[in-house]
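Reference record
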Amino acid sequence: MISVNNFKKLSFLVYGLGTTGKSVVNFFKKNKIKNFQVWDDKNKKLFIKKRPKNLYKALRDVNYVILSPGVSLKKSKNKKILTKYEKKIITDIDLIFIQKKFFKSIVVTGTNGKSTTCKIISQLLKKNNYKTLIGGNIGTPVLDLNIKKDNFLVIEASSFQLSHSKFISPDYGILLNITNDHIDWHGNMKNYINAKLKIFKNQRPNQFAFVGNNQKFHFKKKNFLGSLIIPNIHRYQKLKSKLKNPYLNSEVNDENMSYVYELSKLLKLSKKSFLNSLNNFAGLPHRYEIFLKKKNCVFINDSKATSFQATQYALKNTKNIYWIVGGLPKKNDKIILKNLKKNIIKSYIIGKNVNFFKKQLENQVDYIISKNLESSIVQIFKDLKFYKKKNNTILLSPASASFDQYSNFEKRGDEFKKLCNYYARKNF
């Protein structure tokens, strides 16, 4: 077991030199930890002086391997040797908790809504004069944060990070939801659930575990020690009517906001303070982002919706939808519209997995195959004139990953916004 006292005496291998791996190297240098090596499957020149000549020997001899979240044990070309020494694998977030010095921590995980929830929590704390830092999967690696005594650290943790975590122990652990996602990375749903539950594994009775009704069975089965908090969405919805923030007035964020509300009560913040803190929250790009209103049309960029579970929030909360869908579908994902189809006027399939989406949408809604964003938007403007509805929603909520056409969901969302602005000026 690592302790603060023997930390500098141990040896490490940093495996994967992306943004997270580089932050680990910089952390070691800053803290004068010299006994570490680095490895990257693709980049053989970065930190070349620290690269071992023999990876197998290095993995055998070091005390711990710090694995970057983008590296999958199932897909790496070195998966056999990595799996052999899996007990040695830890994460960059683990290092924060090993070195913990009087800061408070909130760790948020879940399939959908992590980033928005973290940002809302961060704003809530800052507005109430907490010295707050935010990092992790949301953008800034936790080891790049300048953490000081009495800071409140808000961490977004992905299932990739949590899968190999061994020392994480948040004062407030928040599990928002678990739905079908990243099964190809984890192997099966059980592994995915167990990865998410890691945020509670090392908690003590004086720490808090926020778990929804659907997941409390998993929490209790594991006999975790953290004090269980089950958020009540109805308590938040009663208070929500007093909010003056259009972004939070829809039902899209209600479930996750109920967690934030329960957290605010634990921190003994007043209802008035809670409401005031949230009234200026603008939302995050690519997450049900209303970026344009013109004539009788609202344009929403929901490019971050990479599974149908994420997309159905948008479909539930809008009417007269011209829905752009498609991309790289998640393993075992299904599109079941049921009560949602009444909100959809027409669907436009983009991407290289046309057959998958055709089969999913057949006999549910009208659709055409437009293949790319620009063709979709051109057709939508034609259809707006044909259907002549009063209040229309042009929605990009792909229910799939972007990698068949774009390097990430941000690029997909940015192109959608650019095209919508261009064709709106041209047509209106």
Notes: The chain has a mean pLDDT of 92. The domain at 95-278 is CATH 3.40.1190.10 (UDP-N-acetylmuramoyl-L-alanine:D-glutamate ligase).
